[in-house]
């Protein structure tokens, strides 16, 4: 017989993966370029920022899983954290119009990609702490 913890782990994984996929889908929708197309063209800047979004989201989901007693609480806090990260990204983009991150990423500007990646991972750490 498989222990109950095995099934719980699968449930937590499924819910967390769904939250991650939905959040990445939303990120794809809020960028003015086609992320998948840019990555297929070899745009490392867009690839790096997508990587850092997923790392930041994984940190948030880690906290949601680790600090909640039920799957529903995990889903609520994980979704809240992902939404907070998306909102923070949009707010940062709006507050820094002179940086033109979207256009620079589409051009493959790695300096902008590294800065934005640092922001996503830092946001993930901060949100992780806030929801734990």
UniProtKB/TrEMBL annotation:
Pfam families: DUF350 (PF03994). Its main location: membrane. InterPro entries: DUF350 (IPR007140). It is found in: Cell membrane. It is a multi-pass membrane protein. The chain crosses the membrane at residues 7-28, 44-62, 74-92, 112-131. It comes from the Bacteria. Signal peptide: none annotated. GO terms for cellular component: plasma membrane. Belongs to the UPF0719 family. This is DUF350 domain-containing protein.
């Amino acid at each position: 017989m498989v222990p109950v913890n095995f099934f719980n782990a699968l449930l937590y994984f499924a819910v967390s993966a769904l939250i991650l996929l939905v959040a990445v889908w939303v990120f794809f929708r809020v960028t003015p370029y086609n992320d998948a197309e840019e990555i297929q063209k070899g745009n490392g800047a867009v690839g790096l920022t997508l990587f850092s979004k997923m790392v930041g989201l994984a940190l948030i989901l880690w906290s949601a899983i680790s600090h909640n007693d039920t799957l529903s609480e995990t889903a609520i806090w994980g979704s809240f954290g992902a939404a907070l990260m998306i909102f923070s990204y949009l707010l940062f983009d709006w507050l820094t119009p002179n940086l033109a991150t979207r256009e620079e990423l589409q051009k493959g500007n790695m300096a902008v990609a590294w800065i934005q990646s640092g922001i996503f991972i830092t946001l993930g750490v901060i949100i992780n702490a806030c929801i734990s």
